[in-house]
Q: What sequence folds into this?
């Protein structure tokens, strides 16, 4: 019989909706190291690899699917990754309500649900209000890195951040030009011959008061 894994050292507890507060990530990790946030971590391949190879950076991953959340938490706990935390919650809600201003250095959003039917497009994560929140939580010079295999969503992603005056586009690559990533979704989609779209946007410096 398998011995249960104690995942408490690598997990964050959901903040109840009745509480209006945000995570103090310096307190969570016990240091002032830069924090990178991944939304929709899936099986955690990217998140765990980054945490293992970059111990001087802290990582937070958000995942709604409980089976993936538990899987990643167990893997991280077994590896003793003190610079990684995972949270089971809705990514958009957490960014809007629970992430503090200027607390994130890089925001990773790889292969979010494209909601391909037109009537469901409004459920997509990457929309104008999300870009506003991304600008709020990012430090000056912080990055948003995006990837998708869905052409229509790629157009929307790029346009949303291009339209936000708080960002400059600093990278764009499609198809063969797009560097390979390690997320499980990207590995799967590349094997299927799908076209990958990748973008990066940099948070402009805030104007002095």
A:
């Amino acid at each position: 019989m398998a011995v249960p894994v104690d995942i408490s050292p690598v997990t964050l507890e959901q903040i109840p909706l009745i509480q209006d507060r945000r995570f103090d990530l310096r307190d969570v990790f016990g240091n002032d190291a830069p924090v990178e946030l991944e939304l929709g971590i899936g099986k955690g391949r990217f998140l765990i690899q980054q945490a293992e190879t970059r111990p001087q950076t802290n990582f937070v991953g958000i995942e709604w699917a409980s089976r993936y959340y538990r899987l990643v938490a167990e893997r991280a706990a077994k590896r003793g990754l003190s610079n990684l935390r995972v949270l089971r919650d809705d990514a958009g809600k957490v960014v809007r309500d629970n992430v503090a201003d200027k607390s994130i250095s890089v925001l990773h959003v790889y292969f979010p649900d494209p909601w391909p039917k037109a009537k469901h497009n409004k459920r997509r994560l990457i929309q104008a209000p999300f870009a506003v929140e991304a600008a709020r939580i990012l430090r000056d010079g912080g990055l948003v890195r995006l990837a998708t295999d869905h052409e229509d969503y790629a157009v929307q992603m790029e346009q949303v951040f291009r339209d936000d005056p708080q960002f400059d586009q600093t990278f764009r690559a499609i198809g063969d030009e797009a560097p390979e990533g390690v997320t499980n979704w990207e590995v799967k989609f590349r094997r299927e011959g799908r076209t990958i779209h990748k973008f990066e946007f940099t948070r402009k410096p805030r104007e002095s008061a």
